[in-house]
Amino acid sequence: MMIFLVGVFVGILLMLVPVVLGARRNRISRLHLVESMNAISEGRHDVRMYAYRNRGGQGVIFHAFNHMAEHVEQTFAGLSQERDILRHILQNMTTGVIYLRSDGQVQMVNDAAARLFRRPVEQWQDRDHWTVFRNYNLGAAIDHALLFGTDWAEEHVIREGLTVLIRLVPISSSARTQNRNDHAHDVLMLVTDVSEWRRLEHMRSEFVANVSHELKTPIAAIRGFAETLLDEDEGDTEGTGDAGNPMRRKFLRTIYDESLRMGNLVQDLLELSKLEATDGRVDPVSVDLQTVVDRAFERLRHTASNRGVDFRLASAPRVNVWADPDMLLQVFLNLLSNAIHYSSEGSTVTVSWDVLIDRVKVHVRDNGIGIPKESLGRVFERFYRVHKDRSRASGGTGLGLAIVKHIVAAHGGEVGVDSVEGEGSDFWFTLSRLDTNLAGVSFPLH
């Protein structure tokens, strides 16, 4: 009996030994796996597990771990390479780049931004943007972009002789703040030095103004002499000498007409240079829109009548706008003249406006020849003519719509055109409105 019990006990021990050894191997394998994974998390991506260290059936786990480790190592190597490339690009850009976190603190700044603001990189990191820029308008724009994710761009004079264009690009930071319920935004600030561009623009504007001013006198003299000779021809009823020569009269009329066109071109160039020189500074007052339209109709009624074109003011509420009256009159004169020249006999040019919540949208519509679709985006460029022969024949200078765009932009408005070729055009612009004369008017939401 004793021998039987000893045999049973030995059998049980022999059965438990493999179980104990297997459990020990599993524990060691788990510890080794944990240590290897901790090494990976610490950045040691070259760690691998090999089966000879722990004999047993752990080969599949080791292989899977090694495959994962190789993938992680390759991914991190690729990311590190991209990071180095981006860092190299950022540090060698001429455009300043500043990255602000959603809490308003500076996270990254490149060397170009440090040079433009004359502030070492060490004084940017983890500092609130208000302590770095100390500009109320810029700080308010940054806060607005951080809170609402709105784009913003504006030129700023940092110091004498240095003008920069600052653009704010909001970037959603939801991926970095998944535990937050609000929609936070980071902001990428791009700072471009435009001082040289502005200097060249100023030089060009001065050159155009000076040349135009110098041309006024000789053009006026040519026009005066041609007009005098034409008057002599008309006064020579007997046709003596060369006065009655039809060819002479034709040449004189051509000289006179071209001198008028050149005079108008010089006047428009001077007007455009004046607008650029003032840098969009205007002195707006409260202006009754209908009064200005009536003045423009009266000025151009004779020209319109000669071409068989009628003016019509659509039924619209009386409204006051915030504008310079002389500049606003110039806008209407240019748009109406343009509509007259491109309308056929018997056409009607209609002026109307829509009263919106905080602005007025004015329309000058004609049913003339219209504008091709491919030209709609260029009609406000200087000297751009959709129909070149027709424009020259009408005495146009190619600057009227460019002047309109400058004036409207100086008033903080927008300008545009909608047109269908062969059906007519609708030139429109917007101005800030005042509440005068608007009792009981409902405002459309567009």
How would you sum up this structure, described in words?
By secondary structure, the chain is α+β, with helices and mostly antiparallel strands. It has four domains: 2-87, no CATH class; 93-193, PAS domain (Beta-Lactamase, 2-Layer Sandwich), CATH 3.30.450.20; 199-277; 285-432, Heat Shock Protein 90. Helices cover 50% and strands 18% of the residues. The chain contains eleven helices and twelve strands. The chain has helices at 2-41, 59-91, 111-117, 129-133, 136-148, 195-235, 246-277, 289-306, 325-341, 388-393, 400-410, and strands at 96-100, 106-109, 152-159, 162-172, 185-193, 285-288, 310-313, 320-323, 348-355, 359-366, 415-420, 424-432. α8 (289-306) runs parallel beside α9 (325-341). The protein starts with a helix and ends in a 14-residue tail after the last strand.
